[in-house]
Amino acid sequence: MRPKRMQAKSKVWIEAGGEVVAGDGKMDLLKRIDETGSIQKAAGQKGMSYRHAWGFLQAMEKRGGIKLVETRIGGREGGGARLTAQGKDFLRRYSAFREGLDEYIEKKFKKAFK
Amino acid sequence: MRPKRMQAKSKVWIEAGGEVVAGDGKMDLLKRIDETGSIQKAAGQKGMSYRHAWGFLQAMEKRGGIKLVETRIGGREGGGARLTAQGKDFLRRYSAFREGLDEYIEKKFKKAFK
Question: Which end of chain A is less packed: N or C, by CB atoms within 10 Å?
Fold first, then answer.
């Protein structure tokens, strides 16, 4: 047998009460809402339906016990959306948590399997 | 809403050619084969059938291109099994890779969400 080229893979997420609150995908959605000011646009960028994105947000808020997004006048789809202060804080903290983590895991893997 | 107590979760594994070669579960099986000298006993300790464990080993070897376990005289179930030198080396390297990783992720999470 010839050893094949291996690589480390990882997945990181946050739970509360045994339920998934956030992972890279959900936080990317949140980041895009922050950038575009619209759930519709953020969902579209991810190839996701508005309904699906809305469900994600509801689940994150309920499971985490944090109000993350507020929708503005014009209705859910018309008036846009923005992150609450807590939503921005959560996004910032999650980014700090994720920053450099994949690189650390990769480095540790390479060191062990060099 | 009252923010709930959150915790970081993670999963780490090794792939080759887009297929999973090893993760904590499979490596624990390998470790137990090393300790017990028997696939049957190692599988039993994990509440797994011999057939299931054997399938795991075959997949790991094929996907990784490494001969990990050799079975001894007496047949697959009768004579016991032991890790090859490459199998021991792989187990040792995987342990070095995993060592402290969960703690690092937890620490990084706590720092970001303190």
Answer: C
H or E element that contains A98: helix A85-98
Residue-wise pLDDT for A25-52, tens only, equals 999 999 999 999 999 999 999 999 999 9
B89, containing H or E segment: helix B85-98
d(CA A50, CA A44): 8
Closest by CA to B54, choosing from B24, B29, B78, B72, is B29
Distance from CA of B82 to the nearest CA of A (A): 18
Domains plus CATH for chain B?
19-107 (1.10.10.10)
Let me know the angle formed at the C-alpha of A28 by B22 and A26, rounded to the nearest 5 degrees: 70
* CB A94, CB B112: distance < 8 Å: yes
Using the beta-carbon criterion (under 8 Å), do B61 and A16 form an inter-chain contact? no
For the residues of B57-71, what is the DSSP string, one character each?
A: HHHHHHHHT---EEE
Say if the Cβ atoms of A12 and B8 lie within 8 Å: yes
